[in-house]
Recover the amino acids of this structure.
């Protein structure tokens, strides 16, 4: 990885190696799209960051302070992605949370090298997401499941892997949220047992309802997904991917990906 | 936390903030007891470190190199604990493992402030360990479950919290492995679905068998634990804790804790 970085407001690339983010993955993160020095959906991302911090009892950094740092990084040459990490900071050795945590902020910028708003080929992952309601939904730093799932393929033509939970329900991609299209409505899986409640997922549901469409949270089996009119994947960087191929299955374009991309752009 | 540290062999306290150990908890760790400059059970710890690295496809550091670093840190004044972290190092942004990982080694030393070989009071934790066979047994850096479980109490008289899996089976403490004593034999839970397969746990099982005792891996319900003749907790730092109290339950000393402490010392 290369890029520019602010650690607790200081230009630096070195984090104190006693940080609990390293020792326990004791923190949360956000990945924001930056275009021409402006980050997209700052309000939503900050709100979700604050919610995730609260869920782990990590004091959330001051909003204005963090926003200034994010803007400084986003203004760097060629920056297309801003990543924010907030950890519980440095504490005593051991799992116990420090009585007064001084969280660490790591704000870094990268070029955007991904593929936005494309038709993609995907696959099923073998790894099953574990059920942990105390952590589900939160974009925390314990991401070994995602790392292992992403390591299941290295074919560059496959853009994403789909993950099931232990009960066989489809939950998400390794780095995306998932929607299926059925009879003109959108359906996305519940993420209260595993997975992440992403900002783009929320915005899509909101936009759909605003445009008079239905958007519901329901269990999605593998069979239901394969029988759907369309499958969409989303995150803040890649926007909306339309799944065109999954194994032998091909989906014609239902028109939903284009509609949703327009709706999301309206509310930038 | 305070202490001395070697990062990739260099005296430093700063880790590259792009390290995957921070971003994803993509690494493993070990905590070793150091007494008078010597670390205990180095062979076992290195073997487990190598196994854990292999399980995550992280190239394990060279044994002689790491041993020299561990010895250097252990020789520091007042060092009673040596912690080794090995991460997948720095990679591109994203979950995909780098094609050629250059792992990071962080070796740090601390005073030992814990309580070794004591009688302790413990409690039940509310958090249930999630089932993830791809990660179970490995001492990896995704430790938010332990952090959340440890945050359930702050009564200094309670030394440890006991954790169940989702099926209600007793698995371990937040930082210890667990044994029960029944009719003169030792029983410890299976850790192939969650929990960590600790070095002290292995050594206890080995020592018991060497001394003609039985040591088996079996499911342990809450009721079975409460009906047992004794409950023991262990790790490389605290040695063997005898559980004296759990809620209203009191256990008299079955004599096993003392025996096992002696047996472990024999094989230092």
């Amino acid at each position: 990885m290369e890029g520019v970085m602010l650690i607790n407001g200081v230009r630096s690339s070195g984090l104190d190696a006693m940080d609990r983010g390293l020792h326990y993955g004791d923190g949360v993160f956000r990945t924001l799209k930056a275009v021409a020095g402006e980050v997209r959906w700052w309000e939503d991302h900050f709100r979700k960051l604050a919610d995730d911090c609260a869920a782990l009892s990590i004091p959330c950094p001051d909003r204005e302070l963090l926003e200034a740092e994010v803007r400084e990084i986003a203004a760097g040459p060629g920056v297309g992605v801003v990543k924010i990490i907030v950890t519980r900071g440095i504490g005593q050795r051991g799992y116990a949370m420090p009585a007064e945590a001084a969280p660490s902020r790591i704000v870094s910028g990268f070029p955007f090298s991904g593929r936005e708003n494309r038709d993609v080929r995907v696959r099923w992952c073998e790894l099953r997401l574990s059920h942990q309601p105390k952590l589900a939904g939160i974009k925390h730093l314990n991401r070994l499941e995602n790392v292992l799932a992403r390591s299941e393929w290295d074919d560059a033509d496959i853009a994403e892997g789909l993950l099931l939970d232990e009960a066989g329900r489809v939950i998400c991609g390794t780095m995306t949220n998932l929607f299926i299209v059925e009879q003109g409505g959108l359906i996305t899986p519940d993420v209260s047992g595993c997975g992440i409640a992403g900002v783009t997922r929320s915005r899509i549901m909101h936009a759909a309802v605003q445009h008079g469409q239905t958007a519901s949270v329901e269990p999605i089996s593998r069979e239901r997904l394969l029988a759907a009119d369309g499958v969409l994947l989303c995150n803040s960087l890649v926007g909306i991917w339309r799944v065109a191929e999954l194994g032998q299955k091909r989906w014609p374009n239902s028109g939903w990906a284009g509609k949703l991309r327009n709706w999301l752009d309206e509310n930038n």
